[in-house]
Design a protein that fits this description.
75 residues, alpha+beta, two-stranded antiparallel sheet
């Protein structure tokens, strides 16, 4: 598909479900450690509506032995 052609809606939907399927089949990597540094919750109430914004700051430490592609699916 050339760069000036628009993707059809069916192609976009197919790509979307392809990404979802890959995420389901992919084994989560155990080669990193993730630590939560800070969690901030902002909450605003206006009448019957509540707006809540949660921000989570994390640090991920990857081990040195990450030579494989983490996007490979597990069969």
């Amino acid at each position: 598909m050339s760069s000036n052609e628009k993707k059809s809606i069916m192609r976009c939907v197919g790509e979307f479900f392809g990404h979802v399927g890959r995420a389901i089949r992919t084994k989560p990597t155990q080669d990193s450690e993730c630590r939560e540094i800070r969690r901030t919750v902002e909450e605003t109430e206006e009448g019957e509506v509540t707006l809540r914004r949660t921000t989570i700051e994390e640090v991920e430490f990857k081990t040195r032995s990450t030579s494989h592609d983490s996007r490979k699916s597990v069969n």
